[in-house]
Amino acid sequence: MAIAAAISLSLPPQTRRSSASIAAPFRSTSSLHFDSLRSNFSSLKNPNLRVSASSMSIGTPEKISTASFLDRRESGFLHFVKYHGLGNDFILVDNRDSTEPRVTPEQAVKLCDRNFGIGADGVIFAMPGVNGTDYTMRIFNSDGSEPEMCGNGVRCFARFIAELENLHGKQSFTVHTGAGLIVPEIQEDGKVKVDMGEPILKASDVPTKLPANKDQAAVKADINVDGVTWNVTCVSMGNPHCVTFGNRQSQNLTVDELNLAAIGPKFEHHEMFPARTNTEFVEVFSHEHLKMRVWERGAGATLACGTGACAVVVAAVLEGRAGR
């Protein structure tokens, strides 16, 4: 399906921003399929984002050419493709001709709005590589903040690059991110595999102010959130995660009963997490079956989180709730 809409999104010269470089070699792997939705938006003079019924048309043309969306470069248009990985959805922007994002963090917030914008968990920019890498990936979350990395996002990024570069079959390339070097691999069947690397467990490097209690790591540590003492394990997969399987009142969570919108922000902004944190609430069915709900730093409740899934497995092994 093609979506054509007229929105008032001005694209001024960009303010220089530098991406953080955090050394974080990864080792976990996973793969999934992606769906894409190609769209193009025009820029009007009004600096506020507006989409109205009179300016939006949705239809399915008889013929849709991939190149027609990705190759056109009309002045004043922001071209994008929308992908999702397990419902974790992103707006992908071809930014290969500039080291500065085409939209500002404030504009990204408006684009991600699910009522008045395109709707997404974040905006991802495909940018020129640095330090010998093929590409650079930067992300603005739906709240305008910039995370170090995103597991589902980098897999969407890989499929986007394959489409932009007209790549076919098994492919791999190097991507510079705020969490270090990532090498996604596109398989013959179109799935994307990413080596997520070794987790960072040292509490001060996650980072968390919770005291280390196991080989410099915070494992099953107590944290008071809104008057309730939770047991948490802190893991970094290049970005910070706080994983909990329960609290003193309920050692075994039933995650579907959680009011995620109420409890999630209290973990994210807790004083024990100086860089804020992603939080995974996990229900254990067996050593081979875990169910998680996630509150993502900067994006809120999302349907999936790639780095979060890896952090959950690491925490489950450390707490003896799952085997390697």
From TrEMBL:
Protein's cellular compartments: Plastid, Chloroplast
Record-stated family: Belongs to the diaminopimelate epimerase family.
Keywords: Amino-acid biosynthesis, Isomerase, Lysine biosynthesis
EC number: 5.1.1.7
GO cellular component: chloroplast; cytosol
Broad class of where this protein is predominantly found: plastid
Biological process per Gene Ontology, one example term: lysine biosynthetic process via diaminopimelate
Protein name: diaminopimelate epimerase
Group of enzyme by EC: isomerase
